Amino acid sequence: QQQVKQSPQSLIVQKGGISIINCAYENTAFDYFPWYQQFPGKGPALLIAIRPDVSEKKEGRFTISFNKSAKQFSLHIMDSQPGDSATYFCAASIGGGTSYGKLTFGQGTILTVHP
Amino acid sequence: GAVVSQHPSRVICKSGTSVKIECRSLDFQATTMFWYRQFPKKSLMLMATSNEGSKATYEQGVEKDKFLINHASLTLSTLTVTSAHPEDSSFYICSQGYTFGSGTRLTVV
Questions:
Q1: Residue A99 pLDDT
Q2: pLDDT tens, A50-89?
Q3: Helix or strand or coil: residue B88?
Q4: Interchain contact, B98 vs A44, CB within 8 Å
Q5: Which of B43, B96, B105 sits opposite A101 (nearest CB)?
């Protein structure tokens, strides 16, 4: 059973535009929602993360919006750059105890930013 | 944040042989680490939880006898793919907390 659904599968944006990736989850026990960026042949790198007691978190050009009642969260990349071209994964975790770091991933979004 | 080192970055082995992948937590004592598998253009799927000093916990559908996990110290977890076959070819990635290693590309020929 897929517990985290991510869309779109691929996204093309012009340089300077806004990239938006959406995720929805099912398990209400999830309490930590990170976003990862992955380049080909590399491991995923943590970009930004949010907990459900916050509706929005911003770090530089990256913003997470979180809607607890709808069980949805999204990543916004402002002023998208060609260097942002990568695969982005949302994920969810039950943050405490022995499950700390245990992640369920969305399907991934391939972002292409045209110059 | 944590620093996770994974080796080798890529390995090619013959069908029927075994391959060991190492995952080290360089700056943090890790009682728990995780192993994921990723097929081309697909998402990461959790294979198992590596527990220091005890048996690993495998996800449903993962063959524990094929994917042997050892976590003998607080800084090192190893994944051994035994009797590898071409269908085991994949990208294997470990993590400590929310930090991932650089991954290992395994190709079985």
A1: 77
A2: 999 999 999 999 999 999 999 999 999 999 999 999 999 9
A3: helix
A4: no
A5: B96
